[in-house]
Design brief:
alpha/beta; Uracil-DNA Glycosylase, subunit E; five-stranded mixed β-sheet; two-stranded antiparallel sheet; 7 strands; globular
Length: 226
């Protein structure tokens, strides 16, 4: 499994220091907040991927999705042991997440990853080069068990607001990107990205109905030219 070990180590150390999933804000979010009677039940899920060659290219591109879905089986079994001081489990989590994201990306198992794969392969010229040169994360690191975008604003506030947990901002400080793409223009999420210091662009989500590979490719490519 190829990924940028040093950057991931720094990010996971940040998670550990911040007690992601178990600090006071996270506990309040999981236990007290719900949307459509669905409490936060899965996660936190760490950053999806940091390519092995991420730092060694002209474009240190970070792609930010909305919410981390579909990780209960892979992550929840190890997460508590990982971030309640049993640090020996952190490498297990890294490998689980990176292996799963590589599988999703290369096989295009979901529309989100298929469209990203096709567009980035077109831009970078090769699927391996594309995967090795990008980072992928999310605004919200937990979910309510549903693949629909029905996360409450309060949950987004806790996770994405720099003045709350603000994990996305802490990740970006470690990643030091040249370009940041929000894979949604939804103000629920993007309000917390105003005035960030990096080149920043909001585009429509890869799985948005009617979203074509061509339009996604054009949006990303035009932004990287700036």
């Amino acid at each position: 499994m190829k990924y940028h070990k040093e950057i991931l180590e720094d990010i996971y150390n940040m998670y550990h220091n911040e007690r992601i999933g178990y600090n006071a804000r996270c506990s309040d979010c999981k236990l007290g907040l719900s949307n459509k009677n669905k409490k936060i039940v899965q996660g936190p899920v760490p950053i999806f991927h940091v390519g092995e060659n991420y730092l060694n290219n002209d474009f240190r591109l970070v792609l930010i999705g909305k919410v981390a879905y579909g990780w209960a089986d892979e992550v929840n079994l190890l997460w508590e042991k990982t971030f309640l001081n049993e640090e020996n489990k952190i490498d297990d989590i890294k490998n689980i997440v990176e292996n799963r994201v590589q599988e999703l990306f290369y096989q295009g198992i979901t529309k989100y990853f298929k469209n990203l794969r096709d567009s980035l392969t077109s831009i970078f010229g090769n699927i391996d080069v594309a995967f090795d040169n990008i980072a992928i994360t999310n605004y919200v690191h937990c979910n309510n068990g549903s693949v629909a975008d029905n996360i409450s604003q309060k949950t987004i506030n806790y996770c994405a607001n720099k003045n709350q947990n603000g994990f996305i901002h802490k990740e970006l400080e470690i990643l030091k990107p040249s370009h940041v793409i929000s894979l949604t223009p939804d103000w629920k999420y993007t309000r917390y990205m105003q005035n960030i210091e990096w080149n920043y662009k909001e585009i429509y989500h890869p799985s948005k109905p009617g979203r074509s590979k061509e339009s996604l490719t054009r949006d990303i490519e035009n932004f990287l030219k700036k």
